[in-house]
Amino acid sequence: CGQEFTPTRAMQCACSIPCSIAMVAKANAKKAARAALDDRKATRAALDAIKTRPQLEKEVEQEMNRYVRMRDFGRGCISCGRPFSPGAIGGSCDAGHYRSKGSAKHLRFDPRNLHGQCKHCNDYLGGNPTGYRVGLIAKIGIKDVEALECDQDPRKHSKDELRAMRAHYRSAARALEKASP
């Protein structure tokens, strides 16, 4: 009969007993689905609560790299200026660090240090640091590049900070996804 079931009006809104039984079954299925969804959310939250710092750092890095690839896709490689080709096998755009994670682990999540870079420059030319510096100066200016090069302040992010960073970059990447045609 198409009317919504409410437990207090079960007999009033049903046109017959089979209709009433179907409405009750539908309401019970909705409750079960909601309970299953709540259970999955609770399980996901419990699993997230026991993640280690390295696991969270890896997730932040994945979300940040995704965001950087989407942010810089139309701009081309920071090192050589080559445009990215969307149909390339394995993708054509990496999120390359100006100061590598090995030499400057404290800058791993600094957005000034991470930009879109072609696979050739990032993988085969070791990051192409000279081209990267030229492109970075053109993008953010010499003052910020020198500040980035001189930055030696150690950073140790808490688990809550890492979760907040992960959420920030995930939502920023989703916003860019929605904005792109």
Characterise the protein shown here.
- With 181 residues, the protein is mostly helical.
- The protein is built from seven helices and two strands.
- The protein has helices spanning 10-13, 17-49, 53-72, 119-124, 129-140, 142-150, 159-179, and strands at residues 93-97, 114-118.
- It has a two-stranded antiparallel sheet.
- Rg from alpha-carbon coordinates: 25 Å
End-to-end separation: 42 Å
Please tally the β strands and state the result: 2
Mean pLDDT: 84
What is the number of helical segments per DSSP (H or I, 4+ residues)?
7
Can you tell me the residue ranges where pLDDT is under 50 for at least 5 consecutive residues?
Answer: none
- Judged by helices, strands and strand pairing, the structural class is mainly alpha
Encode the helix/strand succession as letters.
HHHEEHHHH
The order of strands across the largest sheet is 1-2
Question: Helicity level, as a percent range?
Answer: 55-70%
Strand content: 5-15%
Secondary-structure blueprint of this entry?
Elements (H helix, E strand, L loop, with lengths): L9 H4 L3 H33 L3 H20 L20 E5 L16 E5 H6 L4 H12 L1 H9 L8 H21 L2
Antiparallel strand pairs: 1-2
Helix pairs in contact: 3-7, 5-6
Summarize, please.
By secondary structure, this protein is mostly helical. It has helices at 10-13, 17-49, 53-72, 119-124, 129-140, 142-150, 159-179, and strands at 93-97, 114-118.
